[in-house]
Amino acid sequence: MPETASVARCVVRRNDELLVEERVDPQAGRRDYAPPGRRIPEDSDPETAVRAEFEDVLGVTLGDLSVLGTFEDTLLYEGDVDDAWLYSEEGFTLYNPETGETDRLCWLHLDDFRKYGETLRPAGLLDAL
């Protein structure tokens, strides 16, 4: 794992769309999107961390993964999900009973980022796709 990577995320595609998590900064009034992922625990490796995120949060299994690269502090993988139901959903909201927070995941077309100004994080990821 690169020393600078503290987060692991995975790009999952559905044709020209990406599965992304919507993140809102209420203080700044901004919204951005990032592939699903999580912080890498000290006792774990990036691949295990990103697989655990998909299994724990979405209940799906990632297939083979390939490394896209490190962007900012994030190691990015690209992979497919073995569970077909995920590809048939347009978006969904996940509720975390421990924190009381909700997360919104959806499929956004690459044009939403390239032409229409939505922000994909980490910086540099869109150019790598």
UniProtKB/TrEMBL annotation:
Residues 24-33 have a biased composition (Basic and acidic residues). Residues 24-48 are annotated as: Disordered. InterPro entries: NUDIX_hydrolase-like_dom_sf, NUDIX_hydrolase_dom. PROSITE patterns: NUDIX (PS51462). Residues 2-129 form the Nudix hydrolase domain. This is NUDIX domain-containing protein. It comes from Halobacterium bonnevillei. The lineage of its organism: Archaea, Methanobacteriati, Methanobacteriota, Stenosarchaea group, Halobacteria.
